[in-house]
Amino acid sequence: MDTLRLWLSHQIDTLRSSLWVIPAFGVGIGVAGAFLLAPLGDTGAGVLPLFTGSADSARSVLSVIAGSTMTVTSLTFSLTVVALQVASGQFTPRLMRSFLSDRGNKIVLAIFLGTFTMSMVLLQSVQAETELFRLQVPILGVSLAIVSVLASIIALVYFIHHLTQQLRIDRVMTRVADDTIRAVESNYRPARLGDDEADEVEFPDDAIAVPAPRSGHLNDFDVDAMLDAAREADLTVRIRPAIGAFVVAGTTLAWVWSREGCAPDEEVCASVVRDHVLLSSDRTLAHDPAFGIRQLVDIGSRALSPGINDPTTAVEAIQHLSRVLRALTVRDLGLLVRAGGGSTVMFPRPSFGAHVGLAINQLLHYGAADAAVLRALAELLRDVGEGLEGSSRRHVLVAHLDHLEEVATEQHLSELERPAVDDAIGVARRVLAGEEAGAEAHAS
């Protein structure tokens, strides 16, 4: 049941990011509406008197509506594919899922396809007067089809506006940062004892290694349910990969040992672990805030490539990374430990230092010769460290600032650029040291 719950949760998340579900729903509404309206004939014509013509006129109107909406739908699909190609090639391929999750584009496609299918079905119900058939013109249905066309025109204007907004890099990075911060808040509880993170726990040499049943990213897990299962079997569990990590089939997924010191059953051990974790082919942001950091870093790194050469975008990516890291400073990170009834479940998560390294190292490597990037990274460390309680996380930031200063010293910056970089590093150092002068320099 736990495996089914995780699988259903993943499938629901996959459907949210799919391009076809909402448009298919629009097709269903169009077909259902047409079947309900077709038998009415001229009944209800006074409700929406937009069409009062003959059967031939109804056929002409419905044919034009069906043809034009299908043409616009094809154009909409083409523009959507182009937007996905631009997002993948210019920003990062890891943004594809975010673009596919956008509801606005899918609702527009649903309106177009619903209008098309309703017009096509109503077209089949229009009958002229003959010896075998009486006149049947679904006047209310044709009127509603005309209303649907007007809605489609509005939807098309909205789609063009929305698509252009989607491709603005500042909007893209804001959306990624907002989604990442939400993932941080939903997955990491507030830190209770400053910045202390749980230490790694040693496991016995005779612990049973549970192999991964398949290859994929570790996208979801249920620690509480795993603890209940471990308690029933008198087991202690230590998961090996962190959330979001790629696991190769047959490699160690977890170590399991009995708290009583006796050898546990391997089948039970495998069931306790595999029934409460989810491996899937694609990495998602829902339970993995580090994936959002990876997307922002990819955008910044690509902006620093010689082919694009856009350091301004890289600086903006660093600023959004400051927001994410700032949200992480007050969260409980590192090894997740759940204990109860004598059993323990341990799940590794990236530490604060790992998150900071992920956010800084590549951007420092590719932007080492750019004074604006160096200054932005120093300001990131300053903003993240300002007001930070506890020593270990502050030491992480100081270590990265030392490395940043070392890299900046090795660069051949001009006499006009170096003072700004040195000043930013100096302000960050004073802020991390907790000196009052740092706050004054920051304010200036």
Would you mind describing this structure in some detail?
This protein is of the alpha+beta class and 444 residues long. It has 16 helices and eight strands. The chain has helices at 2-16, 21-37, 55-91, 96-100, 103-125, 139-166, 169-187, 223-232, 266-274, 289-303, 311-328, 352-366, 371-385, 392-410, 418-432, 436-443; strands at 208-211, 216-221, 235-239, 246-247, 252-258, 277-280, 336-340, 343-347. A five-stranded mixed sheet has the order 1-5-3-8-7, with helices on one face. The longest helix is centred in the first third of the chain and has 37 residues, at 55-91. The radius of gyration is 29 Å and the shape is flat. Mean pLDDT is 87; it is low at 129-134 and 436-444.
What general form does the structure show?
A: flat
Helix content: 55-70%
Distance between the termini: 59 Å
Q: What structural category do the secondary elements indicate? A: alpha+beta
Overall average pLDDT: 87
Strand order of the largest sheet: 1-5-3-8-7
Task: Give the number of helices.
Answer: 16
Strand content: 5-15%
Low-confidence stretches: 129-134, 436-444
Give the number of DSSP strands: 8
Précis, in short:
The chain is α+β, with helices and mostly antiparallel strands and 444 residues long. It contains 16 helices and eight strands.
